[in-house]
Records
---
Amino acid sequence: MARWNWGRVSVLPFTILVHLVGILCVALVLVWMIHFRGGLAWSTSNQILIFNIHPVLMIVCFIFLSSEAIVHFKSAPGSKFYKKTIHSALNAIALTGAIVGVAAVFKFHKELGIANLYSLHAWLGMLTIILFGLQWMSGFLVFLFPRGAKKTRGRVLPWHVFVGLLVYIAAISSAESGIVELVALLQGRNAMGKFSPEARLANCLGLSLLLLGALVVLSSVLSSPSPATKPEDAIAIPSP
Ligand code: HEM
């Protein structure tokens, strides 16, 4: 399937940037929740620590690992089967972490008697996780086990790539809206200064997530043809 011709632009530097910006996002959320918000705990009388598990798992697992799963396909060496297996395994861990991350907010809400699923963030987040689960399941069945016929795989692949990127962008949007919701809650209770180091860190996290999303999407659409490749042969989507 011929697509845009990106000339000699190589995917490699963008892949390296994805790793670096991903690690930056992980570091920022850990500093936020551990240094500024007091740490993480599942069983405690301080329920805030239960809530803190949520942003950490959503960013470390759902965002960071799913970013790695997407770019792994483009850049990692190895057979197609190996790449598919790693892609599927990373996404499975990302999904499991996200489910535990949402369970942490449900636990936090239950222990404090707060209503569930009232905000746009909650709706968008739930929708994203459900779509992510369906995308993972369909990808596993069609491309790994029991694996569809070659023709079926060829037909499904562009949709798998499109829906995968759509769900990924929804995940970044969910994280952004989560940051806005948490900052608004904390500032509404005078628990975070408007121009405090913590507020700036939260803003930096939001911007880093946007940058990460842009780099992942770019790495995914970028083809790296050899100089001899003709424009009509430039292919960005891997074969099924
Ligand atoms: C991809 C990332 C994320 C997804 C899919 C997601 C999903 C969800 C879901 C489904 C809920 C609803 C729980 C309920 O209503 O019982 C929720 C609540 C919440 N999330 Fe996230 N979330 C994500 C990231 C984040 C991040 C990064 C933050 C903050 C830094 C955050 C902050 C919150 C807050 C403040 C609540 C509501 C807690 C409350 O009202 O007491 N979320 N999230």
---
Amino acid sequence: MNARLNRTPNGLPNRQPHRLATIRSRTAGALSAGALLASGFLAAGLSALWTAPARAQSPAVLNLYSARHYSTDEALYANFTKATGIRIQRVDADDAGILARLQTEGSSSPADVVLLVDAARLWRAQIDGLFLPVKSTVLESAIPPTLRAKTEADGTTAWFGFSTRARVVVYDKAKVKAEDVDTYEELAEPKNKGRLCTRSGSHPYNLSLFGSMVEHMGPEKTEAWLRGLVANMARAPKGGDTDQIKAVASGECGVALTNSYYLARLLRSNKPEDKAVVERIGIVFPNQSSWGTHVNIAGGAVARHSKNTAAAVKFLEYLASADAQRYFADGNNEWPVAKGVSFDNPALKAMSGGAFKTEVIPTSVVGMNQVKVQQMLDRVGFR
Ligand SMILES: [Fe+2]
């Protein structure tokens, strides 16, 4: 945590919301400096004052720190540049890498916009004061309150979700029955012994799922459940989600967890080897008859020390526009979050049957449970 920040009673930094106002007043200050110049006060210091706001407002380049690792996003950024003339300069890293970098850079960070692919990490970054909460009626009206940070008393919001992804189950149709794997709980039952494959337990996608399980079942049952998952593993955790899907198709694993967009990517592929994978696997959206499938958010925020706030907000508003939202669905196989956006992704429709029940829990809770979950993973030996 950054001890330099003032905190509100709920632990959130309370200096940030005034940043926009600060920028505006700095511009006003520069104008009065201009008046001084006109009246004969020609000093080097004043000319520096005069140029600083002009740089701050220049929209030519937007520095984007992104954990979105999807090559199809290039078109998304190119369209923004085409529409606004603002060029995007990107730094790519995973969520943890971006948060660490923002912490290290502090107030000298060039970041204007931060994109993360996990709800708990968005929450963590907010708590650590890495975001600049902003007020945007465009974002507030486009994005449902459940998919963005809580709006503060001063009307600002720290981050916004732009797309969702479900954590679903894939299974080997030849060996496993759908009804044996259609809840998260069953993956830990003895009937699935030797079948389960998964990426590392401490990957954000799993940490968020496990954090949501704590919310649904309580910590004791969740720890027992995690122990059951470890007991059922077909192999030690390794690889990414696509590797798990392929390992199910090859017969090495009977069942695995994956984010929905990896699956949709294979469903839409024309490669014969991908078609063969899809042929072999079944897909389940877990917990449809109880609390619903776990859904994570990819989202973004204005960076705390952005020198380009107006352009940063413009970029976030662009991500909430119908065109960009459709792009999340059709380009990267995620579900759009903006109200009333229609999309035409046959894979998303095919695998979910059009609509499915999602869990309803506060994102902040999933974030808060993560320390607890990591300790459980250590205790049960889930690497
Ligand atoms: Fe991913």
